[in-house]
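SEVERITY: medium
COMPONENT: batch folding queue
REPORTER: lab tech (J.R.)

DESCRIPTION
The queue accepted two submissions in a row. Attaching both inputs and their returned structure tokens so the on-call engineer can compare them side by side.

ATTACHMENT 1
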Amino acid sequence: MKFFTTISAIGLFASACLAQDAPVQTAHVTLRSEGDDHSYPLTVPADGKPVLTHSTLPIALIDAPDFNVLQACVIETPGDKNLSSKIAADGVTQQVVIDPPQAVTSISCQGTCVETYGACFDTNGQYVGACCNGLCIASRCRPWNIGQQS
């Protein structure tokens, strides 16, 4: 009976430890109008809750330097859109392209990603997760531009 009680207590303790909330990552994005005449920053916690923009400015690009917005976020607009990605002129920042440009009413993100130079595979060779801004090379998340930067 003591053995069963001990095992039960260990199980309850382990599940309580696992149930603790992990820190929520945050996407720091910049929404850019067509022609880059106007832009504004938006901070989106990756908790699945939509962050309203309260803006009618038509957005063509969303800079996403620290989170995989195209894969892990929902971008709400009033009309149909095609979303794609590209790398900004700086050769580093990933951008989400909104075609046709239109107002973004909200953005919600969920999940986690591995920071630049973080391990995308653990010591047992198990995949940890997608890179926030770059790609996995030799078990580390590398920035998009692995060459020289001017």
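ATTACHMENT 2
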Amino acid sequence: MQPEIDLLGLPLKTFGLMFALGFLAAGAVLSRRLKETGQPVDWAYELIFVALAGGLIGSRLAWVFQNWDEASDDLVDALFGGSGLVWYGGAIGGALFVCAWAWRRGVLNLSLLDLCAPALALGYAIGRIGCQISGDGDYGQPTDLPWGMPYPDGTVPTTDDVHPTPIYETVTMGLLAWALWTLRDRVRPGVIFALYLLVGGLERFLVEFIRRNDSVLLGLTTAQVESFVMMVAGLVWIVVLLRGGGLRAAGGGAAAGARPRPATT
């Protein structure tokens, strides 16, 4: 494990590095897709910045809410200190900020959500590499499986062989990003994002069974409750699309007639 590296004499957190690389990779994918669909390419990093800001604010607020007994002792430090992020809060915060940006631009529609989905999956996959390298405690429960590993030098160390759940998530979400990208012009508007919700939610729901998080409702963790909502939303969305004419794009592909139009500014 390598929680920190030295870069030109300056300490650099590996989690933060991979977090940043995840956003840059997501921006690159989004830039290419915007170019393919005839949209302003500079929107990509506008979106990434907005999603990053919303994600950080949402994840911090969720951490404060989830750990109120600890956070309430020093609320200023809890809100602006150097640790304490919750993924589902980041997902909600990022989504709300992106929706606000899209509404202002006049492009809040299914096609925009489809544009973002592969980038979201790829960014998440790369971010989880940072969790693995830094050993930040996102690993799973002890296991006797041959690929179980300890994290003796991690940010949250353990000498037990545990499930390397960040690797599981990196592989799964990386494959999802590839699949969504491959399907981008073959399905109707809305299908790509619905699949992202369904598969991304299922992935996190299942991996939580071998993580170390405490249950909060009906034996489920907070992340599982959030993931269940994602799965249901994605499944309902797909059913609605199936009843409305199927999932395949009509004619020559989804991008042909389902592109968000740039708003005049």
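NOTES FROM REPORTER
Residues 4-139+146-257 form one domain.
No errors were logged for either attachment.
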